[in-house]
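Chapter summary example.
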Amino acid sequence: MKQIKVLGSGCKNCVTTAKLIEDKAKALGVAVEIEKVTDMAAIMGYGVMSTPGVVVDGKVVHAGGIPAASAIDQWLRT
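The structure predicted for these 78 residues follows.
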């Protein structure tokens, strides 16, 4: 199971990012656990300065804006 964290204040882009990841994982049949992190100190701890940020299995893979579907696909397949 992949551990995914969506970093952000809970804004529309953050919610959209989490939903896109959830939908893509379901389509691929990949088990994921999605956690929404809204604490700014925790977000800064990852070095993310613009949100939404995405952390997959402890590694920051995206920061700032809604990620492309192709990027989400790649995160879930590796």
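To summarize the output: The first helix runs from residue 12 to 28.
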